[in-house]
Amino acid sequence: MSAAAPTAIPAGAVARPRLPDWWPLAAFVLLAAVLRLSTLGLQSLWYDEAFTVVRDLHPSLSATLHSFVHTENTPPLWYLLLWADTRVLGDSAIAVRLPSALFGIAVVPVAWAIANELAGRRAAVLCGALVAVNPLFVWYSQEARAYGLYVFTAALAMLCFVRAERDPSARRMTLFALAGALALLSHYFAVFLLAPMVAWLLLQPRTRRSGAFAAAALTAVGLALLPLILAQGGHGTQWIGQWPLSERLQAIPQYYLSGYMGSALGHGVELLVALPILAGAAFGIWRMYEPPAAARKRGAQAERAQASLPHERRGLVMSAAIAACGILLPLVLVAFGADYLAPRNLIGAMIPLTVAIAILVASPSTGRAGVVFGTLIALAALVITIDVNLSPRLQRGDWRAVAHALRGAGGSERAITTVQLGDTPLEYYLTGMRHLPARASVLLREIDETGYSPLRRSAGTPPAPGFYLLARQNFNGLIVYRFVSPVPRPVSYATLARHVITLAEPEVLVSEYARVSA
User: Closest by alpha carbon to 141, among 108, 111, 185, 92?
Assistant: First the structure.
């Protein structure tokens, strides 16, 4: 009777309220929202973002769809969402980045759920924390491109796959097929994540029949996208082949550890972030695969942790296989001449990679050491994410500041020379600018040259006779030389393009009211 009786509460004592089990998830979602939304408009739009707004988006949906087919190399879902977003909120930097931020916040509970399905609550807590603060995920949650949507849909497809694999009902397989279709419509690299999921379902007898339906549905979506892929023809991917493959491979872990601009921090910082991950993963593997007899020697708690190890091992293999295929299959295609291996295209594979890290580090078999390793990993990622908001050298080029300095200068008799990555940001921030035709001349009083280091030796010298240097300005690494003439002078496109201060593809912008002659 004494064992069944409730414990008596001393007189005057107040029972402490117990927090609900989901409070860590709520805290991580809130943290993810703060990191993404509070600084959403902090950085200037860079080339790709401005290109989307200036070139791809049009008042009519049909014109937008026609434009992206001929200028982009991405499936249509993102452009449909962004077009609807700008019809309601406009095309400010915050407005066009807001969908990515919302998807970046929403991926936190999805990643939590994946880890919880595969390995339990401890892995879910760490996985949710890492996805909330990882600098790479935060970066692409603040970019007006398709990557934030891709990460969310790829994670959603993985969650539906994990649940369908556990319970291969028609409803769960249908949800997996729908989520996988959304991932394919978000980014073509989703196929490298979906392929191992489909293979896993087809290779197991108990999921083969229901998995065949999902495989057929996803194959149909992929075939439907083929005409679009052929029409786009790899627009805007030439830069990938010009970037040495060895440097791209080095950038993959660098992006994950320290973010898109993490190279500015140096290899020392990358190593400091990598050490707790490597140490925690190694410790997790040791404990996860140690003999049961060794666990029994460590005590009852370690012996109890052994009960969940088969489930955790299976979840580890599943998540690691998906991540490996998402990274290695594009590398295999490089050997066959289809080189689209840009590190940012692999961001979808970073979700299963994060799940695998969380399973290893937060396994119950790692005990308190796993908690320490997980805390160090999350804190290191959070520090770098905050540092990005404090350090201009870790941010996108500040074309907004350049445009602010040049706004109104020279009126209609002004030309701006820049590099290819600078023309659409300047068009976005300086309304009424257009490209000067290659065989034209224009009447000018002012020539503004913009670019970044390393500069040509001719930088700072007058680009045309009759002009003199008025000012040199530096906006967090973006350099501006301003030259003026007392009277308007005709200057050709060839003269202006020859004098671009950075050794890169030249672009020349003039006012839409400029006096241009053949």
Answer: 108
Nearest to 502 by CA among 452, 460, 465, 467: 452
Number of H helices, E strands in the chain: 22, 7
Angle at 168 between CA 125 and CA 111, to 5 degrees: 20
Phi, psi for residue 28 in degrees, rounded to 5: -70, -40
Give the DSSP letter string of 454-472. SBPTTTTS-SSTT-EEEEE
In angstroms, the first-to-last Cα distance of the chain is 103
Query: pLDDT of 279-328, one tens digit each?
Result: 999 999 999 888 877 767 777 676 677 777 889 999 999 999 999 999 99
pLDDT in tens, 164-220: 999 999 999 999 999 999 999 999 999 999 999 999 999 999 999 999 999 999 999
Which residues lie below 8 Å from residue 227, measured CB to CB, with a gap of 6+? none
Position 291 scores a pLDDT of 81
Pairing of strands 506-511, 414-419: antiparallel
The Cβ-side half-sphere exposure at 99, using a 13 Å CA radius, reads 24
Task: Give the pTM.
Answer: 0.94
Burial 459-488 (b: 16+ CB within 10 A, else e): beebbbeebeeeeeeebeebbbbbbbbeee
**3-class DSSP state for residue 175?**
helix
Locate 411 and state its tokens. 């009126």
265 burial level (CB within 10 Å; 0-12, 13-18, 19+): buried
| H helix runs in 336-417, sequence order | 350-361, 367-390, 399-406
Mean pLDDT of the chain: 93
String of DSSP letters for 136-166: HHHHHTTSSSTHHHHHHHHHHHHHHHHHHHH
